[in-house]
Design brief:
Elements lengths: L16 E5 L18 H15 L3 E5 L16 H11 L3 E3 L6 H9 L5 E3 L14 H8 L4 E4 L21 E3 L1 H15 L5 E5 L8 H7 L5 E4 L4 H7 L3 E2 L9 H14 L2 E3 L3 E5 L8 E5 L2 E2 L4 E5 L1 H12 L3 E5 L12 H12 L3 E4 L3 H8 L8 E2 L3 H8 L5 H4 L5
Parallel strand pairs: 1-2, 1-5, 2-4, 3-4, 5-6, 7-8, 7-15, 8-10, 9-13, 15-16, 16-17
Antiparallel strand pairs: 11-12, 11-14
Length: 398
Amino acid sequence: MNYNKKTVKDIDVAGKKVLLRCDFNVPMAKDGSGVITDDKRIRAALPTIQYLLDQGAAVIACSHMGKPKGEIKPELSLKPVAARLSQLLNLEVIMADDVVGPDAQAKAAALQGGQLILLENTRFEPGETKNDPELARAMASMAQVYVSDAFGAVHRAHASTAGVAKYLPAVSGFLIQKELDFIGGALANPKRPLVAILGGSKVSSKIGVINNLLSIADTIIIGGGMAYTFFAAQGGKVGDSLLEDDWKEYANDMVNKAREKGVALLLPVDTIVADAFSPDANSQVVRAGEIPDGWQGLDIGPETVKLFCAAAADAGTVIWNGPMGVFEFDQFARGTRAIAQALSETQAITIIGGGDSAAAVQQLGYADKMTHISTGGGASLEFMEGKELPGVACLLNR
C-alpha cells in the first residue's frame, strides 16, 4: 500500500466547501443524558478543522456513532458532539438534522468560508455501511474537496470513508497523516532493531499481524492470553487458561517461520496463574507451560517481565499491540504496567496500536511518554497485517 498520500496542505482549500470525515464515535453516558464521557476523539480532530477554517474553507463535517444499522436512533445523534465542538472551537457549529436530506442540503448550500456544519450520524443512512454509490454521490455533491481524518474507520469501505472519493479530489487530514507517517514508517523503513510486542487474548486475531511482521521485525514478543496457545502447541500444560485449540498448528508454523527468517520470537518463560478469573483470586508464579489443572494464566511472570523489557530497552522502534495480562485486575496488571514503563524510558520510537494497549497506556499514566498512540484499534491491526485500507487507498498519491 502506498503511504505517501496528499494532505490538506498539498491542495488549496480557500473559499472551497470541504467534506471532512471525522471519527466522533465517542463514548456516551449510559443514562441517555447525552453526556460525552470522553471527548478525546473530538479533540483529536481539532487541528485539521482549525486549519481548514483558518484557510477560509467552509467545512461540512461528518461522522458515524455506534451501530444504528440504518435506523434513526435519537440516542446516537451527533447533537451532543456539535455542542462540545462549539465549546472547543469557540465557534457556532451548525447542526444538520439529516445526512443528505433537505436540511443538510440547504445548510451546506448556505455555508460560508470559516463556517462549520456537522451532518447527522452517517449510519442513520442504510447506504452508509453498504458503500452505496448514490449516498456517496449525494454527500459529495455538497462539497468540492474531500478530507479524510477518521483513522478509526479507514479499514471499512463505507460511503463516507471511501465512496465519496470517487466523486471528489480526496486528501488526508493531519490525524491520518500522522498514522501513515508513524505506522507506515515503522513498517516500510523502521529505525532498527524493530521490536513488536503483541498481546491480547486471541492468536486468531493476531496471526495476520505476526505473519506480516515476520518479514519486517527483528524481534517479536508474544504475551497475553494468546501465549497459552503457543505453549499448548509445544506440548505444554495450560490448565484452564485461554486456549484456541484450532490455532495450535498456526502457532507452531509461526515459531518455525521465525527460526527460518532469523527473527527472535520471545515467549513468556513464567506465568502468574490464578485459581479463578477474579480480581482477588489466589495467585502463584509457575514456569511457562507448567500450569496446574484448575489454574489459569492471567499475566506474565517476573522473569518474563525482565526478558521482554530488556528487548524493548535495546530497540530502535517498538510497536505494541495488546496487553500482557488481565490489566483490568490490579494484581494481574504488573506485566502490562512494566512494559508501559519500559517503553516510557526507552530512547526508541514507540508506537502503540489502538484499542486495549492505548487504553492501558492512558490508564497507567504513560501516554505522554509514547511517540505515537494510534487512534484506531481495528485499523491499526489491519495496517500492521499489510492489508490495504480502503479509506487510505482512495486518497490521492503525492
